[in-house]
Design brief:
Elements lengths: L1 H18 L5 E3 L4 E7 L5 E10 L5 E8 L4 E5 L3 E2 L4 E9 L5 E11 L6 E10 L3 E4 L3 E2 L3 E2 L4 E9 L5 E10 L9 E3 L6 E2 L4 E8 L5 E11 L6 E11 L2
Parallel strand pairs: 2-9, 11-19, 12-19
Antiparallel strand pairs: 1-3, 3-7, 4-6, 4-8, 5-7, 8-9, 10-13, 13-17, 14-16, 14-18, 15-17, 18-19
Length: 237
Amino acid sequence: MTKFLSALIVLFTFSFVISNAQPKLEIGGGDMYDWGNVKPEQGILHAEIKLWNKGNKTLEILRTKPGCGCTTDSLDIRNVPPGKYATLKVHLNISGYQGSTIKSVRISTNDPEKPEQNLLLKCNVVVPIVQTPKYLGFNKLIVGEEAVTKSIITNNTAKPIKIKSFDIRMASEGIDAGELKHNVRRNIVIEPQANYTIELKYTPKKAGRLQASLNIEIDSKEQSTIEFPIWGNIVNK
């Protein structure tokens, strides 16, 4: 009876362990990887992230999906034994970005508690001149009605910058550049860490598509020009 009871306890314990065996994904360093301050000329940022299996059953990494085309990834193994890790290599192309940037990679596994986890990729792209936004777009343009759009220029350099010249280049036919009214003037000075708001007004005369660009020349060694694409769809009342 004692031997039978001991065997029964062992069998019960073994069955309990088997039934409660499960994989557990833990992202090394947490669910956010931060490169900190970076410069646009760095181009593509790289990092290697460890995907640990903290469970007691093989972790199956079913899929890793970047949130956008500027982020790519690759994985060395997909079946991770307990106590081991897979290495996820991530690459973030920061070309064209400015300021705080956050992207993501979704990780799908057989972890029953968290089958979907997001790895956030963060950096702060430091540029001499920040444009917020980088365009002058009109959400709604109606013939005969004035519309206004704005963007903010931020001087991130250590010296004042001065506007030397500016011009509007038209891509749309039948629209005169003089119809686009803005507040940009020569010799305007933007102090270090200060902002200047660009305001553009437009009263369309006929339906169509507005496409142009505002180009500003400045006296900064770090950046000589600032360009704002201008766009909008014009409709009748």
